[in-house]
Amino acid sequence: MEYARKPEPVDVVIVGMGASGGTAAKVLCEAGLKVVGLERGPWLRPREHFSGDEIKFLNRTYLWSDPRVNPRTVRTDETEKAVPTPFSMVPQMVGGGTVHWAGWLPRPRPSDFMMRRLHGDIEGASLADWPITYDDLEPYLSKVEWAFGCAGLDGADKYEPYRSTPYPTPPAPPTRAGKRFYDACKKLGINAMPIPQALITKPYKGRTPSNWTSFWNGYGDPSGMRSSTLDTFVPEALATGNLELRSECYVREVTVGADGRARGVVYVDADGREIEQEANLVLLCLGAVESARLMLLSTSRQHPDGLANSSGQVGRNATFHEYLFAVGLFNDEQPLYGFPGNYISGGSFQFYETDYDRGHIGGALIGASHVGQPINWNFPGRPAWGSAAKDADRDFYNHAMKIGHTLHDMPVESNRVDLDPDVKDGWGLPAARITHKAHPNDFRLAKWQVDKNVEILEAAGAWKTIPVYLERGRASGNTCHQHGTVRMGTDPGTTVLNEWCQAHDVDNLYVLDGASFPTATGVNPTLTIMANAWRCADYIAEVHAKGRVERLAPGRAGRVEARTS
Amino acid sequence: MTSMADWPVVPAPADSGSGERLFFDDHEWDTIEAACARIIPTDHDPGAREAGAVRFIDRYLSGIDFVYAAADGSGFLQMSGKLADAWRARVSDLGRVYRQGVRDLDAIARERFGADFVALGESDQDAVLVQLSGRPKPAPVALVDDGGKPTIQVYAFDDDLTFFDALVAHTRQGFYGDPVYGGNRDRIGWTVIGFPGPESLKDTMDGTYSVREYYVQDYDWHDLIPHLGQSGTP
């Protein structure tokens, strides 16, 4: 499509069409706003482009950012030179991380929003309360679960917080590994339950649950059984006629007017043309690493240290949820089967809340999972070659399982995203540089939880267990989970966004992805990201776009009229 | 530039069953085939030699015609743009690593045993691989407490691999990957470890291939989750 050098201005431009951008597009377009969605990556067609090809999806990065085009560098502290590392990579495409994911869809817990109130100042950490509570988010958690499609079992989670709605579809059947997990938990008195998951198990909104291939975690789903924004919210936004989606358009800068407010964005299209799109509102939805990077790239006379960065906090307090686990190898007659399932089968919130007797704060949602497909199934220490390697595959591929968790890591102010001074991406712009050193609480929590997972595997009858702890100085970045680089809060001196994820410094700039999270939470973040994006998009459509301003009363749910602008 | 969503599907330059050599010369082919056969050896079950792992590697290194199969396996994607450039550079780097790797195998073999790698017996070939890798030959999985292990990356990228690590990774891919890439002949890798695997990639797109029979068939959530009985909800 040919565009004039400057296309018509629109109400809203959304940068990044993944979990949060897709959600915001749906809400804003359905409210009647004119939206342009810009996505750096491709706009793939699930029924045409996805299938169960392990080499393509897991070994040759078909959905993933190619590190040669989108490099990222990592170091442990400011004295080191950062080295290129594929750290916390997320698919950069329409649908983003909801294209490849296993679809864990657990709700956060009330305690996640008030870690500082509960625990005070923890040395070396920058704990902060959220400016919102679980109650503020709850209606939107329900909206996402029902609009998006979700499977779960009502009443199974003993520790579940208040829910205003039941689950829309029942859980997938347990796998044999899942059954072992349930049985072991029963023996140990642990409350196990199916982890809520972003998939449907009965016909739902024109979708059919027909993908039982188990090519799941890391693969695109050709069937529509998995909930992704590519297959749900983006088509729904397009159906309103109010969304124009431009894929393979790489936004390199948010531009500002003389008043310092956002004017629009400049992007490079697939043919290398540079185009400015003006809009009344700019929404950043690139993921916590790339949203912070784009703000730091967007320097101007009015914003010399990066856009909306008068606090100097853009990029800081980054958290990454390292995935840690224990593997159990079994030598009995009953095969567990390594391959079937939708990755997870059975989990527990029993260890989620703080218990000071454990010597750390926070806790973990644990999940039992199958081991995957033949090439990439693995356990640390698996023999690499020779007859020992062949025997390990033959003996254990169908006799192994793991129990893992994503680490609820502490925010640390010096853990940050900034611009690498040397390494450039495929467009000649500085790569995101990540500085990360794990907090002592992270090591203690990881150790305790992995040991507990070993105990459950032993109760399940494992012959050998292999614990995987947080070992090095920093996280390895082995999940897509990324948060905290553009915190929300009430104090413009120490946070970047207010409670609606609107920049304190720039009232027509919003950041709706996980960057806004003051703390990491201990759950997989996408449901919280999507619910929060819906909440803020609702505010944009119902309040901001109508020329009004409202604030949340601190400490309680509900809005108060602040002033009329 | 063609958008990634519209990369054309083109027929593979070589039939998946053909023995045509696209990258290696005869000596390189024979050397890599012999090395693959030590990575996944033949015993009472077929190994990497029978699966055609060397053909899989030869195709991968031949350019960018065999990087991504079409979703339904009807051909391969013809890449363009920045991703094509990145893959061309990656494959070219790997090709150099393999060519040097063959020279290194022969140099060690000649120095220690007086003949090219391919001419050695299995145990001498293993000794060469041990020396090349700088690590002992892997021992069987044993019930010993070997302590905690560092995290493993969930996704691997084919950059900055040594020859030995590339050989191990690609032999595995050539043994267990979908046959459309030229390895896993007659799906024998899958048979060896008891993975059913689809007849074709197309079968994974339309519901034809299902492993639902491997889930638990008879279950009652109330039996698996005692709390359900106490919570008063179904």
UniProtKB/TrEMBL annotation, chain A:
Domain Glucose-methanol-choline oxidoreductase N-terminal: 134-321
Matches recorded under Gene3D superfamilies: FAD/NAD(P)-binding domain
Entry keywords, A to Z: FAD, Flavoprotein, Oxidoreductase
Domain Glucose-methanol-choline oxidoreductase C-terminal: start-end pairs: 411-533
InterPro entries: FAD/NAD-bd_sf, GMC_OxRdtase_N, GMC_OxRtase_C
One Pfam short name: GMC_oxred_C
GO MF annotations in UniProt: flavin adenine dinucleotide binding; oxidoreductase activity, acting on CH-OH group of donors
Claim: Oxidoreductase is one of the keywords in the record: yes
UniProt similarity note: Belongs to the GMC oxidoreductase family.
Protein name: Gluconate dehydrogenase
TrEMBL record, chain B:
Source organism (scientific name): Planosporangium flavigriseum
Record protein name field: Gluconate 2-dehydrogenase gamma chain
InterPro entries cross-referenced by the UniProt entry: Gluconate_2DH_su3 (IPR027056)
Domain of life: Bacteria
Cited Pfam families: Gluconate_2-dh3 (PF13618)
